[in-house]
Automatic annotation (TrEMBL):
Name under which the protein is recorded: Helix-turn-helix transcriptional regulator
Organism name: Chryseobacterium paridis
Keyword terms, alphabetized: DNA-binding, Transcription, Transcription regulation
Domain HTH araC/xylS-type per the UniProt entry, residue ranges: 191-289
InterPro entries for this protein: Homeodomain-like_sf, HTH_AraC, HTH_AraC-typ_CS, PchR_regulatory_protein, Tscrpt_reg_AraC-type_HTH
């Protein structure tokens, strides 16, 4: 395998910093340093399997599974070391937000609920979902991260878009920890469905056919997926297709009909309708703006 390394600052303002790390660990001693600044909240999404993290502030080591995440508050500047086994890819996504921004956003003086949420964040209650197990990312979280990474806006529009996405992520985190009091691991059924959809969303698949292919009852599929990821299978497929369509639409050499087929739509009319519903413009109009 060739050496691969990609560590980039995707966005930075006076309140927010976003870093994407993707690196091939070719030696056992190869580690990545992650800095948490003083008085900052850090959303850390672990995107590759078996990531080791050694936190210097508490001298504790963790082992994260793929697609787990934590929301951690650091009162003082802290450096953590992350690594994976030899010849594996280390991939994680860090969103750092300063304390004052969160304080102004939540405003603990506005009510008891706001006060409790901020106290929970400061006391790091949004790390272990159950029995010292970090939470797993939902389908919506994956979609938001992809939207942040593929964002092409600049200036004020970029700042507004990033802040809106981060607020949505925080809402999803808080909801997941408040509502998830029974399951402590990602259900195998929902995980299997998500994997199948991620690999086949561009095809003209139907839920009935999907159930037959992976051997799961339709009703069970719908219930388990919605329970785990807080989005229906149909809506998740649509989100993935629209993300792909939006990336393809900027290439004027590709016909709209071709994009429609590539995104899993048998009829271009259905594609156009779904595209306009999602983005407020037809594919043709968005391409020419």
């Amino acid at each position: 395998m060739k050496d691969q390394s990609r560590k980039g600052l995707l966005f930075q303002s006076e309140d927010i910093k976003i870093i994407m790390q993707e690196e091939l660990c070719s030696e056992k001693s190869s580690k990545s340093s992650m800095i948490e600044e003083k008085s900052s909240f850090n959303l850390l999404f672990l995107l590759s399997p078996n990531i080791h993290l050694e936190a210097q502030d508490c001298n504790t080591s963790f082992l994260f599974k793929e697609n787990q995440y934590i929301l951690h508050y650091s009162a003082q500047e802290n450096t953590s070391e992350l690594w994976v086994d030899n010849h594996e890819i280390l991939k994680y996504f860090q969103i750092q937000i300063n304390y004052q921004y969160i304080f102004n956003l939540i405003n603990p003086d506005s009510g008891l609920e706001s006060k409790e949420i901020l106290e929970g964040m400061l006391n790091n209650r949004y790390i272990f979902l159950h029995k010292e197990t970090p939470a797993y990312m939902t389908a919506e979280m994956h979609i938001i991260l992809k939207e942040i990474m593929s964002n092409s806006k600049r200036g004020v529009m970029q700042k507004l878009l990033i802040e809106a996405k981060i607020i949505k992520l925080l809402i999803l985190v808080i909801e997941q920890f408040h509502e998830k009091n029974i399951q402590d691991t990602s259900p195998k059924t929902a995980t299997l469905i998500k994997k199948f959809v991620d690999e086949n969303f561009h095809k003209n698949i139907r839920i009935e056919e999907m159930g037959k292919l992976i051997g799961i009852n339709q009703s069970t599929m719908r219930k388990e997926f919605k329970s785990q990821y807080n989005i229906t299978i149909t809506d998740y497929i649509s989100e993935l297709r629209m993300l792909k369509a939006k990336k393809m639409i900027i290439n004027k050499e590709i016909m709209i009909k071709e994009i429609s087929i590539e995104c899993g739509y048998e009829y271009v009319q259905n594609f156009t309708r779904a595209f306009k519903k999602k983005f407020g413009l037809s594919p043709e109009k968005l391409r020419n703006t």
